[in-house]
C-alpha cells in the first residue's frame, strides 16, 4: 500500500521536528520515501522506519545527504596515514587510506556517513558505481539512498542487517543500532524509529 504522504508529514512534523518541517526536510524525506517505494515497497515497514531514523540521526535532522563536519586538520588527524596520532595512522592504513590526503578524500558522507577508502571501494562495487574514484557521489540523493537502504538490509556496514532485528519474532528498536555503529545513541534513535513507524502506520 502506498504511503499516505499527507498523514505521514503531519505526524512527523509534530513527533520528530517540533512543528517545523522545513522545505529541505520535506524534500529529503520525500526522496527517501520515493526511493523506498521504487525499490523496496514490499519490505517490512519497520525496516523503513529504522532507516529513516538512522538518516535523521546521521544527518542532524536535515534529512539530506551530508558530509562529515570538520576541516582538513580534523580529517587528517582522524583518517589520514599521515595522522600525528600513530594509532589513527595505523587505522587509516588498515582501512585503505594509504595516500596523503585520503583522510579528507574519504571522510564520512551520505545518510550513513560512509568512511574509509576500503568502504568506498567495497560499497561502490556492490552498487555498481566507482565511489573510490568519485567519493563525492555518495552525496547524490539517489546513490545515498541506495547505500542507506541496501546497506542496512544487506548488512554491509557491520555484518548485521535489518532482518536480524525486525522479523516475525522480533522487534528490537534499540539493538538495531548495531547495524551501523555499536549501540551509541541507541535509545535516542529507537525513539525516532518508533515515531516514524507510527506515522507510517496511520
UniProtKB/TrEMBL annotation:
SUPFAM superfamilies: Lysozyme-like
UniProt xrefs under InterPro entries: Glyco_hydro_19_cat, Lysozyme-like_dom_sf
Record organism: Asticcacaulis taihuensis
Name of the protein: Predicted chitinase
One of the record's GO molecular function terms: chitinase activity
GO BP term (any one): cell wall macromolecule catabolic process
Residue ranges annotated for the Glycoside hydrolase family 19 catalytic domain, each copy included: 47-137
Gene3D superfamilies: 1.10.530.10
Coiled coil feature spans: none
